[in-house]
Fold this sequence. Notes:
- By secondary structure, the chain is mostly helical.
- 54% of the residues lie in helices and 0% in strands.
- It has one domain (3-61, 69-242).
- It has helices spanning 3-23, 29-42, 78-100, 116-135, 141-163, 200-219, 225-242.
Amino acid sequence: MLGKTHLLLAALLFLPLAYAFADQGYITAAGAALxxxxxxxxxxxxxxxxVDSRMLHRQSSGLLGAYAKIDSRAASTPFQxxxxxxxxxxxxxxxxxxxxxxxxxxxxxxxxxxSLAGVAxxxxxxxxxxxxxxxxxxxxxxxxxxxxxxxVGGALLHLYHDSLTPSGVNWLFPFSGSVRGRIKTVGxxxxxxxxxxxxxxxxIGLFVIVAMAITWLAVIGKVNAIFLSFLSGFTLLLVxxxxxxxxxEARGLLExxx
Length: 258
């Protein structure tokens, strides 16, 4: 899915939940804002394996290919900073050894970065950085821990979003088998030709309905925030069912299939 779609869907899901937790005293308003900020960062992080990612703002032309030119907005916001640090200090070193081991497909876009193992390793990478911030008194751990928790939630939501598309996501890397759905990303070649039940518009519409329901339950119904979190997880399963989600076929260790 497109970066802007990932951001929109993350905001629709997590904003009412953040409000519920803050309103019921589980977390301060500032803490909820930090968590929400972390989710918006995290929902883009898995796409650090693509040079045209919204986090990187790279141009894809030039004499040296994708690495030849850098957009003027690069590294100008926390999103680009996190994107560049993740790509060049985490993804590229690991991808180098993955390719060296003969598993080049796993090092491409929607490879190991789009898996539970990738999310865990990326989270550990940023946990080390954030702990260093705390150690050198750059940022307190109370702030960075909330951002990190949001990043984990956002990254998992990214995997969920991409699982709804035909390309799917291999959640259980290094074991093969992609979870996939029928939702097509609306790009230049698909604009105007994709039917509603196969388009991102369906997913956005369903997320809007979910967000409205959670907001009503949180603001008017004052439903417990923890219960709302579990209810949100259940509704994500329903959305996946509507989008034709299919279970993977396990094929063994590192038997990667496109």
